[in-house]
Amino acid sequence: MDSTQKQLREELLYDKTNNCVQCGYCLPVCPTYVAFGKETHSPRGRINLVKMVGEGRITNLSVLEEPFDYCLGCRACETACPTGVEYGAILEATRAAIVRRKRFTVPVRILRKSMLKKVFPSRKMMNLTGDAMWLYEKSGLKKALRTSGITKALPFHLGAFESIVPPPVSPAERKRAPGEVKARRAKQFTIAFFTGCIMDAMFHRINQLSIRLLSEAGCDVIVVQNQTCCGALHAHSGEMEEAKELAKRNIEAFEKVNADYIVNNAGGCGAMKVEYGHLLASEEEWAERAKAFSAKSKDISQILALCDLPPFNPREERVTYQRSCHMTNVQKVSKEPIDLLKRVPGIQFVEMDQAEMCCGSAGIYNIVHYDVSMQILDEKMQHAKATDAAIIITTNPGCLLQMKLGVEREGLSQSVRVLHLIEYLAEAAGISVPDEN
């Protein structure tokens, strides 16, 4: 084996593919295999392709592009695998190897560079994005464009998503957001709160409700300065070096705060942060620091489940829960959100069939692979409708928008609401945040 082939094997994490025994337990839990019915679009099929490249039986890496591009990255296959195949690591390593060799068109290259390197990592740019969304609505432009029908002509079906984004907050409200909030009852924990980039730009109120709930539950909450994007979108796009740099920036920022836990409210962000230890394991200066960061990183439901919460008002309604793939399969958090919902008196919790299956959001998957995403979503909505629930609870912003779109596609907007877990618990507790529009 020559040095080039050896290097390629290392890039693709070829050795990890040997744990796959091609048993097929991953097939029924893989949304893209179910949707396409093609072996190359299954976890074991993708792993077999990597093995063939690593062994020199396939020499053109472009063969890997479509199968790995269409992968949702939900990692349900890992939970079904009897031999512990690290599919997530293989997936990201393969995407990174493809990106290193791929020649993007100039527009795509500029878009990737601007969004991944300039926008998402910049708190200033993300705040400007949130402010622009507020101006778009308050200026009347949103209404005018909808009335004209222009939004329906937007590329990548963006018009469909434009109609379901949450009401934006004003620049004034964003500036009023506190940097530190003290516990409102006997203190239990000190929390360093991770705001996220998209989460804070588009779902700022959910962040503020999260802080209020933590405070009401007996937590001192500190919004850490100089934190940045978690790096998930970068890792999923094959930009692993950028993901590592963002991880280091977050580790440095959060090390300055003496907190019991680092808490987030977005399944995708949380999954990325608990894997910092793996991401930086080969870097001597960062390995232990990253491992310590990951050990402290928790979903907000994990912390609230440990606390005495404010009293909830009775809610006589049927509720179901759309699981976040990354929260369930990577963070291994599945019980706490349901336990918290069941604390609300009067609700009837109904688990939907195939609750563990992805809804088809997967970061920006529903934008770049809209048709496949909608096929997966429509299947998910059949299970959601069968519960006859009036409320669908989510724990991830992508799932939240996707399920809202699903409700619209099914014509259920007048009878079914989709809420983040934090929104629902805050409603039940009578907790709100300032609203200045």
From TrEMBL:
Obligatory cofactor(s): [4Fe-4S] cluster
Domain 4Fe-4S ferredoxin-type, first and last residues per copy: 10-41, 61-85
Keyword Protease: no
Gene Ontology terms, MF aspect: 4 iron, 4 sulfur cluster binding; glycolate dehydrogenase activity; metal ion binding
Enzyme Commission number(s): 1.1.99.14
Cofactor note: Binds 2 [4Fe-4S] clusters.
Claim: Transferase is one of the keywords in the record: no
Protein role: Component of a complex that catalyzes the oxidation of glycolate to glyoxylate.
This protein's name: Glycolate oxidase iron-sulfur subunit
Originating species: Brevibacillus centrosporus
Organism lineage string: Bacteria, Bacillati, Bacillota, Bacilli, Bacillales
